[in-house]
Amino acid sequence: MTDVDCCVIGGGFAGLTAALRLKQAGRTVALLEARDRLGGRTFTETRADGSWIDRGGAWIGPGQDRIQALMTEFGVGSYKQYVDGEAMMVVEGKQYRYHGTIPWSMSPWVAMNLGAALLDLGHLCKTIPLAAPWTAEQADRWDRLTLAHWLNTHVVSKAAHELLETAIAGAYTSAGSEVSLLFVLHQMASGGGPAFVLGIEDGAQDSRPIGGMGAIYGPMAAELGDSIHLSRPVRDIHQDDDGVTVHSDRDTVRARRAIVAVPLAIASHIHYHPMLPVDRSFLHQRMPSGAILKTSVIYDEPFWRSDGLTGQSVEPGSPATVTIDACTDTGSPGVLCVITEGPIARRIGRLDPADRRNEILDALAERFGDRARTPADYVEQDWSTERYSGGGMLSHAPPGVLTEFGHALREHCGRIHWAGTESSSVMCGWVDGAVRSGERAAAEVLEHDTVAAGGDRSVRS
Ligand SMILES: Cc1cc2nc3c(=O)[nH]c(=O)nc-3n(C[C@H](O)[C@H](O)[C@H](O)COP(=O)(O)OP(=O)(O)OC[C@H]3O[C@@H](n4cnc5c(N)ncnc54)[C@H](O)[C@@H]3O)c2cc1C
Question: Residues 315-325: what's their mean pLDDT?
Fold first, then answer.
């Protein structure tokens, strides 16, 4: 049995940050990670030619100060997303090439509907108290409504409706009918509003770390050294008056406190003894993750750039719903990232892999020409089939959940503390939110330890 000050469960950015900050504060830590790799919903893969792809979370943006701080700490630089060209939108079968956020050459009616809805949502976001969205003046009303209801009643143009549902519900990798309006407003507000969430330049897709997310979690892991234990799925956590006993498949850890940093959607896969308070248990049962496929289509060169395109495109309903240039900082090879979310990801996820690939490449060829049909390589990552993620990008709240159970998101349950991007009031759902949650949980553990020891940590309770 390993005996430490704190046991951290989960080696994504939340768990790694929590463990790192505790170790830096002089505590002994054991981090138990279920998979045989770290990174969780981020996953950087180095390829035979030395280039790399991010199969999960990849982009960073302004205001994401805590991931930026980690990058500074470990000397990781960043590079800007490629935006030197036109983006493309396919609406009702017609292609529009444009600069900026909205193709104004599209019907002015559609563009006006889009602009007005984004402005309205931005105003609503400003009324959300980030630390306690359930206390917003309209919280009860908005938590009874779905995003789909809001779109149905506020967006008249069918094309604008489809685009907004694709862009906004897409972030929750679900249909608009599955997500609470209050949750949507909170999550968008936590990033600064719709312009940040949906934006490229100065938005959530502004830049990328050089070397991918692995360039950050790699050195974090190196500093943690033998505190990290891979291939240890945690099955149960027992609490008593003096500490916690954490059982994984391969060993047992005894610690004074535990930090659980697994996605909310699968937090109930761990058995807690005694049972958690009802509100926390019910939260675990009520915050699912949606479906997302991230496909990296690799070409010898980013040919779309010489055609005057950024590689960014969107087509509601298409198997290649969203595309974005995902080349490394060297620009070679050409990597086009295809994102498929929600109901469409569920549909194509059921297909035979060869049929799925054909559907995606056909859709790319329609947008980028025949060269798109013959990539040098094709790497798909279906997050719905990842046992230890339970889907992606984040666990979301359906109607009625935040107002009743939201208070339990960060409340520790005895000696168990909670981390994970879903528990962050700022940048909830992003890697930055995961880092913030890890730092918060580590600070809680340090505070409780100090209190228990009467201010002198050397006298351990
Ligand atoms: C396709 C995709 C694209 C995304 N794009 C972006 C982006 O561009 N920018 C951005 O900021 N964010 C993005 N995100 C979201 C981002 O990846 C997540 O917010 C972040 O990685 C979550 O970190 P976390 O530590 O909270 O959880 P996770 O990364 O999920 O870490 C949880 C860890 O717990 C482990 N675990 C689970 N169960 C157990 C158990 N029983 N015992 C032990 N370990 C367990 C898991 O294996 C995992 O390593 C994206 C996500 C996806 C899926």
Answer: 97
